[in-house]
Design goal:
By secondary structure, this protein is of the alpha+beta class. The chain is built from eight helices and 25 strands. A hairpin with a 5-residue loop joins strand 19 and strand 20. Helix 2 crosses helix 5 and helix 2 packs parallel to helix 6. The radius of gyration is 27 Å and the shape is globular.
Length: 455
């Protein structure tokens, strides 16, 4: 009996040893931060998630992911953001992988590796294993703000408010149009815009629609034209921004905003082949019924001349659910240009082709928007409301902005005499903008509008 007991003890001890060895082996094989997770973070996340990370469209990432202690503390949230598809934010369907600049898809293998790192206990590993991640940064996978403080480099022209804009305690949602003042003598002759950047004053700026600088929204960086493409900024330009301030109202929440913007111009001697045009393609005249979870709106736009399509920017508000651009060619063939199946008002991207797309005259662009006005939409301000097109966040919009240019090369030499039609169009656009603009008056202390506009 004693021999049998000893055998059981030996067997038990052997099983424990085997289990312990297996556990050690499993830990040895588990992904670690420095060897496995950090290179994936550097490639996909650290452009935003870094110490004192960039303010992109008014927001900054909440934690640096090139720091082990921070990444470990946030590991459960990282897992949730990955499996729900919330991060990395992009919106465009997987079918478009490879079509647009600066796309934010994460490879399935890399996603699974990060999930395995979290599930394996978010192990640290050996800091000496970080060489792969450092190599990625050296090759440009990580992003560091230039010393100028501008992502576009040192601007040739900076414009800003005449005085900081006061956003009172009571403001929840406010959308004033404000002039950006051009310093006297700083821009006396027309210039060709190459790059622009909106430098938002803080997180209370939800988004900006500008007259010459594109659109600034959370997650969208500077606006850059391809080489040889540009927009003419006329002399004495009327530069405006439609600001969308959004914050929690209450005592002590007032802020002063001093959003600014920068321009980089083409140098003399460079060639402008394509003068960029834009069209908001707004569609109104519809009403979303109360509680409707999948209301569809459709519109079309006829292409009357051969163009190169540069980019597309869908826009809806909190009830926005999905959006699609589809092209019907003259022969009847149809092609989906952009499918955003899970639209997010907080991440409004401009989808810019890696190479501008040729669209022949006689084509028709079909645009479709879907809205969720039900209780299932957690962002819905009021599921009992009938909703129409309007400027307030509690209204809705169905816009499908495009940037494009005629295919005929202009061959305009920067610094030489401008073609009369180009100069005339730039001046005319500015004139119309001046006539139609209703500007915010910074000298007014009347905030009676708050009761109406901040609902």
């Amino acid at each position: 009996m004693k021999s049998l007991a000893n055998s059981f003890i030996t067997l038990a001890l052997g099983s424990i040893a085997l289990a312990a060895a297996s556990l050690v082996s499993a830990q040895d094989n588990a992904p670690t931060f420095y060897a496995d997770a950090l290179p994936v973070f550097q490639k996909n996340c650290v452009a935003c998630h870094q110490p004192e990370g960039p303010s992109v469209g008014g927001i900054s990432a909440p934690m640096p992911l090139n720091d082990y202690q921070q990444a470990k503390a946030w590991a459960p949230m990282i897992k949730n953001a990955l499996i729900t598809g919330y991060m990395p934010p992009w919106g465009a369907h997987e079918r478009h992988r490879g079509e647009f600049k600066d796309e934010r898809y994460i490879d399935k293998k890399e996603l699974n590796l990060l999930l395995a790192w979290v599930d394996g206990g978010a192990l640290e590993g050996d800091p000496n294993d970080a060489m792969r991640a450092e190599a990625l940064v050296a090759n440009g996978a990580g992003t560091v703000l230039p010393e100028s403080g501008w992502w576009i480099g040192e601007p040739d022209l900076v414009v800003e408010f005449e005085a900081p804009v006061y956003v009172p305690d009571a403001v929840k949602d406010w959308q004033p149009t404000i002039q950006m003042m051009v310093p006297e003598g700083a821009h006396e002759n027309p210039k060709w815009i190459s790059r622009t950047e909106l430098n938002t004053g803080g997180p209370w700026v939800h988004h900006i629609v500008s007259s010459h600088m594109g659109v600034g929204v959370p997650g969208r960086g500077p606006f850059s034209y391809p080489e040889g493409w540009g927009v003419l900024l006329p002399e004495n330009p009327f530069v405006t921004v439609n600001m969308h301030y959004h914050k929690n109202p209450g005592e002590g929440t007032a802020v002063e905003d001093n959003t600014s913007a920068g321009f980089v111009f083409y140098d003399d001697g460079e060639i402008i082949d394509h003068v960029v045009e834009t069209n908001l393609l707004p569609h109104a005249g519809w009403t979303i019924p109360p509680g409707d979870p999948n209301y569809e709106v459709n519109n079309t736009y006829d292409i009357e001349e051969d163009i190169y399509l540069l980019s597309m920017g869908p826009h809806m508000h909190y009830r926005g659910k999905a959006m699609r651009y589809e092209l019907e060619y003259p022969d009847g063939e149809r092609e989906v240009l952009l499918w955003v199946p899970d639209y997010d008002f907080n991440w409004q991207f401009l989808y810019e082709y890696k190479e501008p797309k040729f669209i022949p005259a006689g084509s028709t662009m079909h645009m479709s928007w879907w809205f969720d006005n039900s209780d299932a939409n957690r962002f819905n301000p009021d599921s009992t409301a009938s909703v129409e097109y309007g400027p307030a966040t509690t209204d809705e919009m169905a816009n499908a902005r495009i940037y494009y240019a005629p295919t005929t090369r202009r061959g305009i030499v920067v610094g030489e005499a401008l073609p009369e039609d180009v100069l005339k169009m730039a001046r005319e656009d500015d004139r119309i903008r001046r006539e139609r603009a209703t500007l915010y008056d910074p000298t007014s202390d009347d905030f009676s509008w708050l009761e109406e506009d901040s609902r």
